[in-house]
Amino acid sequence: MSSEDCHICNLYNLTTNQQAIRDLAQVMNDSLGNLEPSIDVYPDRAAPVVRNTAEGRELARLSWGMPTPRQFLKAKDTPNTGVTNIRNSRSPHWRPWLGVANRCLVPATAFSEYGQKPDPVTKRKPLHWFALNEARPLFFFAGIWTAWSGTRGSMKTPRPGEHQLFAFLTCEPNAVVKPIHPKAMPVILTTEDEIEMWMTAEWSEAQVVQRPLADDALIVLPPDAPDEPQGRLF
Which residues contact 75 (CB under 8 A, 6 or more apart)? Predict the structure, then answer.
């Protein structure tokens, strides 16, 4: 892990229906339960994920944040709050989860990044939302997942036990994201070919998806866009 593996895209929105996710990802089994019409997803919160299983692709609900390496925890008994974004796919920490068995698709319709300059009035950095277009169609982040045993949450409200966790890859930002967030952007999959490659190909082939989305395939949503996701970062 490195400092590149965190502090970006810690809030995204999903406004769609389960059937749309099942159709685009070719889901065979659905253990999600009822999907809310619109959800804002924050770190360490449960969210829909499509993963490979022996019975085919499953739509399930996992918690956002892969296990943080112990050396990055403040103390041995500190709850593991997780890593939400993974840039350094060459790291030995992430390598065990890059195979097909641990890859997943994270459905979303918009994601956010903080701008670099604070608002002169509020003194807070503005939150910008990105989508494929103003209609905010469904796409997937290229993710990985794992079952993990330990303590999540915080020192005040620890959650010991068994957990199902996920995170997604990031890459260099494209020309749309870079002016707002110059460090990175999520790896986004929009086509059936990309989805199939990520979910079925060996890492030597699948790693090519860890690249910026084309500049003309992403927009910054206007601040007054109808039904724009609302939320705050913790």
Answer: none
Q: Are 202 and 209 in contact (CB under 8 A)?
A: no
Encoded tokens for 129: 């939302």
Give the SS3 label for residue 113.
strand
* Euclidean distance between CA atoms 4 and 34, whole angstroms: 34
CA distance linking residue 69 with residue 169, whole number of Å: 17
pLDDT band at 225 (very low <50, low <70, confident <90, very high): low
Distance between CA 83 and CA 86 in Å, rounded?
7
Cβ neighbors of 233 (< 8 A, separation 6 or more) are: 10, 11, 42, 114, 127
What are the backbone angles phi and psi of residue 153, rounded to the nearest 5°?
Answer: 85, -145
| 4: nearest Cα among 186, 170, 140 | 170
Question: For residue range 2-43, what is the model confidence (pLDDT) as tens digits?
Answer: 434 445 679 999 999 999 999 999 999 999 999 999 999 999
Quote the CA–CA distance of 177 and 185 in Å, as a whole number: 7
* Contact indicator for 141, 84 with CB cutoff of 8 Å: no
